[in-house]
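job 3f2a | input accepted
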Amino acid sequence: MTQVSTTLFTQSPLLCRKDAARYLGVAAQTLAQWAYNKRVQIPVTKLGRKALYKQTDLDAFVASNTVGGNHAH
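job 3f2a | predicted structure (73 res):
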């Protein structure tokens, strides 16, 4: 494994579509449709046919869609 790859994984774990969907509380197919339709802008890394999502990008998506309450920006 190269140093670049190691750095990527230590900064933010990459989740497969199924795990990313579970993390967000939506169906994997919903996440696939969002990516296909570009309806929701969550960065995705494609390795062959596999779609991978950084946990930090998922956290940013949740934070940007949080309405009301007291939350830090």
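job 3f2a | The two ends are 35 Å apart (CA to CA).
job 3f2a | closed
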